[in-house]
Amino acid sequence: MLSRTAESVYWMSRYLERAANVARVVGVNLNLEIDLSGLAEEQWFPMVQVGGDEAAFAERYGAPTRSNVLEFLTIDRTNPNSIASCVAAARENARTVREIISSEVWQEINEFYLDVTAPEARRFALHDAVRFFGSVTRASHVVTGTKSETMEHGEAWNFSRLGRFIERADQTSRILDVKYFLLLPSAGDVGKPVDDLQWSALLRSASGFEAYRRTWGLVSSESVVAFLLLDRAFPRSVGHCVTQAEVSLHAVTGTPMRRFSNRAEQLLGRLASELDYTDPGEVITGGLHEFIDVLQDRFNRIGDAVTTTFFRQG
Amino acid sequence: MTFEGYATGGFYDELFTADGAPRPEARPLVERVERLAEGELARSQQAAARALLRMGITFNVYDDGHGTERIFPFDIIPRIVSRGAWHEIERGLHQRIVALNHFIDDVYHDRRIVNDGVVPADVVESSQGYRPQCAGLDPPGGVWCHITGTDLVRDRDGTVYVLEDNLRCPSGVSYVLENRAVMKQTFSKVFDGLSVRPVSDYPSRLLGALEGVAPRGAGRPSVAVLTPGVYNSAYFEHSFLAQQMGVELVEGRDLVVNDGALFMRTTRGLERVDVLYRRIDDDFLDPDCFRPDSVLGVPGLMDAYRNGRLTVVNAPGTGVADDKVVYAYVPQMIRYYLGEAPILPNVPTWLCWRDKDRGYVLDHLDELVVKPANESGGYGMLIGPHATAAERSEFAERIAAAPRNYIAQPTLSLSRVPTLVDGGFEGRHVDLRPYILLGSKPFVLPGGLTRVALTKGSLVVNSSQGGGSKDTWVLG
């Protein structure tokens, strides 16, 4: 397929995943808010930190009040990481590849876009926020399902999948980083009793609470880290995402697994192997924040390698 | 909802006769519409508009500086063409397109028609679409104008005239297909038992025509659609046609000429292109051959075309016949090349570069429509009877300054079709653009795009100026 088209399909999926992720993170806070009868500003600010947009937020809004944060993350088109901006960017990419994705996929993305950019979306997002975030998450599931059910599982689909899993791995690590910092400011706090409500909320933001419970039972900081970073079977864990990204990358190139024929395969394969042989205790002792910093740097380098290998060969 | 009280207003109405009775071909539709429950028609109309928006069937407008998307307004009452009327139109278009193709080929070869004194050399060479770089070229099968959209209008007395031939990159066919799809989805009950000729095979026909002119003999040819990009007003159509044909949609930056052939940049390296259905004008195709400042095209593309390793559709240079002065000579071309009488008449046309014609035009500006010879989209036109004195005198100056650039025609009373307006029916003026494919023989898509001037009394049907469209039913 055309390099330009492959790049658009890849970014279409990355932006959709990003939008859904914002909805998940904020949606969980809203649930928590009801349980705790209101949240302090310090509970809202991490929502902004997940996207790394603290400066832009401070400049435009000032205090991280509930409604400021909600507006910034949902419908504010000047925030490139807001849900509306991400869905618009996804749709703009989809528009340039309409001939490649199926008509059904295009229509779902277009409807998603029309819904989150409609004039009523503001009221919906600020005043009926729980339903709003639910609808965004659902729309993203519908798009993913429609892709899987109506697109040929060939190159375009695999590029789309590659984008989705790279973005998701990145986002899950960001959520973990920010929430962990808030919940467990120093390594010395490990092992102390944890706030079950808060930790459960973190798991729920990754739709992982039920799966976690079945495998690990009671919540502990170490096992949450093991689950969200290293689990192979849970679809939003970093370990799973990296493995699945690798599967799609190799489906595109035809290179056998555990071999590489380009930089992207090399970097992704190396990361997947390292995660396979990482112990959660090591991560916490060495510092989770430091671990995730390195991880994110590697996601960036993998993204760059995908670009130079397939989209801009020069 | 009834048509009672609907008045044809002295115009030719496509569905009703002057005494208010439905034409025989329209009677089943009229009866069905009248049997609909209260409000059902309006609901279907709204559902259709919503479906078009949801499906993202939009065009770009630039009036606010950066492109925004709008849906092309759609009216749910179809225009109906009887079997007999369509047969005449189809024959007329076959004849016309074959003559035009002869003319273009002749212009770039022996120029017999010029040497025999039928068309002045000056008219040919001053046509904006004339490309001296194309002299002596032989496109595969001798086909220059593979895809044409010819605009037809019907006057008050019922005569169908050819208004213009769009031979460069005629657009709109995607709306024909999508309008039908939306009609079937939102208003299916009106089709019951009527035999409306299908249009959905157009992409297959187009793909067949494109593959049929491929330069290489072996294997399945590689076809691509070339678009100027996502901000072009017809982008939806470019991607729609590529999708429906299952071929790549490329931009200039995806292409490169290597070793005298055209290639596209793919995730697996370069891949050959055999046939390029380009939706950009000649000027922008190849900066080495045409406009050097073009960034939309591909350097060396014309070399690949010249040496026979690439087919370009429509052939570069075809635009010579897409000129309103050249248009005036089409009836002579039909007689000259085919030895036949034209089946579809031209609208009588005065050519302002002829002194005698110009004198007449300047004396009758209040009755005539004056058009630039080389514009499309309904821009830069003067509709004499609707213009102010100041506008007319401004046009008189323009004509005097550049007579070759202007033609004039009588103001036709375009036929009308009932259109849903504020919960009732009102007549609105329409034209019709059928699409003609020329391969080994011509194919005319049954029907075409009926454009409708939604503004009361307006004769301008262009989408950029308040026009909408209707489904067009050719009865089988």
Can you put this structure into words, describing what you see?
The complex is a heterodimer of chains A (314) and B (476). Chain A has 16 helices and no strands. By secondary structure, chain A is mainly α. Chain B is of the alpha+beta class. Chain B is built from 13 helices and 22 strands. Chain B has helices at 27-35, 40-54, 83-107, 112-115, 121-125, 173-186, 202-212, 235-245, 301-306, 324-327, 330-338, 355-363, 389-401, and strands at 58-61, 68-71, 74-81, 147-154, 160-166, 223-226, 248-250, 255-258, 261-266, 269-273, 275-278, 311-313, 350-351, 368-372, 382-383, 406-410, 416-421, 424-433, 435-438, 442-444, 449-453, 467-474. In chain B, α2 crosses α6 (173-186). Chain B is globular, with a radius of gyration of 23 Å. In chain B, 47% of the residues are buried. The model of chain B has no long low-confidence stretch (mean pLDDT 92). The chains are: A mainly alpha (314), B alpha+beta (476).
